[in-house]
């Protein structure tokens, strides 16, 4: 297969993948694997379950509270500060990016 044919086959798949992962520009530099790891390590889900019950997902999108990507990041920073998690700014952004991808979907 020559290079041009290869590009014609691969390019649509790459374009679809990029569209499927579209995120708010605020999270452009986020490390999603790191965010997922930090959510697990800091037991975020268990904390949310203890606060709202069920599977903890009611914590996400409380009526009218979090309505921008910046505010979402700010809420993660608030958890970081209040719980003394010691995350660096880029780690907070990575956690917020994962939450945006999985729950909020700000574009």
Q: Any overview of this molecule?
A:
This protein has 107 residues and is mainly alpha-helical. It has one domain. Helix content is 63%, strand content 0%. The chain contains five helices and no strands. It is globular, with a radius of gyration of 17 Å. The N and C termini lie far apart (37 Å). The N terminus is likely disordered.
List the helices and strands and how they pair.
Layout: H1 3-20, H2 32-41, H3 44-52, H4 69-82, H5 89-104
Helix pairs in contact: 2-5, 4-5
Q: Tell me the radius of gyration.
A: 17 Å
Overall structural class, as computed from helix and strand content, comes to mainly alpha
- Whole-number total of structural domains: 1
Low-confidence stretches: 1-20
β content, as a range? under 5%
Short note summarizing the structure:
By secondary structure, this protein is an all-alpha fold. 63% of the residues lie in helices and 0% in strands.
